[in-house]
Amino acid sequence: MRFFVSGPITPRDCTPREAVKIQTLYVDEGIRVGIELMRKGHFVFIPHLSFYVHIHPSNDVLFPLDYFYQYDFSIIKDWANALFYISTSPGVEREVEFAEAWGIPIYRNLDDVPEAEPRKDIFPSCASVSR
Fold this sequence. Notes:
Strand order of the largest sheet: 2-1-3-4
Structural class: alpha/beta
CATH topology: Rossmann fold
Mean pLDDT: 90
Low-confidence stretches: none
Order of helices and strands: EHEHHEHE
Number of strands: 4
Largest sheet: 4 strands, parallel
Oligomer: single chain
Number of domains: 1
Number of helices: 4
CATH class: Alpha Beta
Strand content: 5-15%
C-alpha cells in the first residue's frame, strides 16, 4: 500500500522553545511510524518532513498553513491508498475527514497493517530487500 502518515506536526499553546522540542518529537514519531510501515513492505509519505523546509537556511518564505493542507490533500487524493493515523490534531482530523470522503482506509494500529506483497513490477531487485 501507499501510506500517508498522519500525525500532529504543529504544537499549540507553548513557548517557542517548547514548540521546537515538541515539533521535533512529532517529526521523530512520524519518521518512526513511516519506517515501521516500510519494514512491512509499504511505500510511505511522511508529511512531517516538511518541518525541514521550514527551518532550512535557504527558505525565506513563511508558507501559509493552507498551502500545506492543499499539498497534503493532493497527496492523499492522488497518491495514497491508505492513511495511518498517529494521534489527533486539527490538521489530522481534516486529513482523516478528507481521506474518508475519498474512501481511503484508515489504520490506527501498526499491528493491523498487513505485510505487503513484494512488487516485482516496479523493480525486480526490490523483492530481495530484507525486512
